[in-house]
Amino acid sequence: MSVKVRIGTRSSPMALAQADRVSAALTALDPDVAVEIVPFTTSGDKWMGPLSQLGGKGAFTKEVDAALVEGTCDLCVHCVKDIPGDRDLPEGTVIAAHLERDDVRDALVHPGGLSLSDLPDGSRIGTSSPRRAAQLALHWPRLSPLPIRGNANTRLAKLDAGDFDALLLAVSGLERLALTDRITEILDVDTMVPAIGSGTLALQCRTDDTPVRDLVARLDDPMTSWRTEAERSMLRALNGHCHSPIAGYAIQESEGVLSLHGRVMSLDGSTVLEARESGADATALGTSVAEALLRQGARELIDSLAE
Ligand SMILES: NCc1[nH]cc(CCC(=O)O)c1CC(=O)O
């Protein structure tokens, strides 16, 4: 029996590339699957001010999730990084799979080919991520993080127009846009601890849509799902929101054992809380690392920043 799958996605070039990848993967599983891509402009795409002023959570996922619930699409392709960490998924929906994780690291894009250490004092580094700004301040206090909004292509256009000296962007995002030639430095994961869920795509469908759910579940990479659960469990226990300078990165340490590195910072990089633990149970590991960070005062740091 052939299945029809309408994929709901943001309409940015990066999101459309992600949806195309899922479409190709579904067709490779079963050539009879009929895939259609349904793009949505989300509130996060429309609003060019600070995301914190949007109020509602899930600025990049809300409209696509609503379409899934209403039945105007059957599958949402989301960056895990864009899925709010402090609330449940919409009722009646479930993440049926995580694709194999891409590069988790952040990259510098500087038109003159320089790396961060070579940039002149006061260079304007475009990023709106509190996690990137805090770690930039921690390691390169001479440089100036400046807020920037818009999708990756828009940001690169602003860089090329001279509004910024350099940008920090995700390697995986630039890969999806075939723009890795713009990268001038890739930051290691201990210097710039990655975002929770970085480089990972989540496939979300309706809980009761068994045909789509069963099909999509075949695309799951269990290792990625396991690591994602550890990182997301930490974020849930911290009750963190996307305006908090929180980083979290899980890797497999040995057969059946994960290692999770969590970092919570003040925006100016002057306070850095760290915890690193290992364990076999991803959920328990995330909770435990979060508790270690909370014991060091993570709550005050997270709450001191406006939601
Ligand atoms: N905040 C937007 C966003 N959400 C996910 C990615 C990159 C891809 C990923 O990590 O899955 C990006 C762009 C960026 O951070 O440069």
From TrEMBL:
Pfam family, one: Porphobil_deamC
Alphabetical list of InterPro entries matching this protein: HemC, Porphobilin_deaminase_cofac_BS, Porphobilin_deaminase_N, Porphobilinogen_deaminase_C, Porphobilinogen_deaminase_C_sf
Reactions mediated catalytically: 4 porphobilinogen + H2O = hydroxymethylbilane + 4 NH4(+)
Cofactor: dipyrromethane
Domain Porphobilinogen deaminase C-terminal residue range list: 228-294
Cofactor binding comment, as recorded: Binds 1 dipyrromethane group covalently.
A cellular component term, taken from the record's GO annotations: cytoplasm
PROSITE patterns: PORPHOBILINOGEN_DEAM
GO MF annotation: an example: hydroxymethylbilane synthase activity
Domain of life where this protein originates: Bacteria
Domain Porphobilinogen deaminase N-terminal per the UniProt entry, residue ranges: 5-213
Keyword terms of this UniProt record: Porphyrin biosynthesis, Transferase
Single biological process term from Gene Ontology: protoporphyrinogen IX biosynthetic process
Modified residues annotated as S-(dipyrrolylmethanemethyl)cysteine in this record: 242
This protein's pathway: Porphyrin-containing compound metabolism; protoporphyrin-IX biosynthesis; coproporphyrinogen-III from 5-aminolevulinate: step 2/4
Enzyme Commission number(s) from the entry: 2.5.1.61
PANTHER family per UniProt: PORPHOBILINOGEN DEAMINASE
Remaining remarks: The porphobilinogen subunits are added to the dipyrromethane group.
Binding partners and assembly: Monomer.
Function according to Swiss-Prot or TrEMBL: Tetrapolymerization of the monopyrrole PBG into the hydroxymethylbilane pre-uroporphyrinogen in several discrete steps.
Similarity annotation: Belongs to the HMBS family.
The protein, known as: Porphobilinogen deaminase
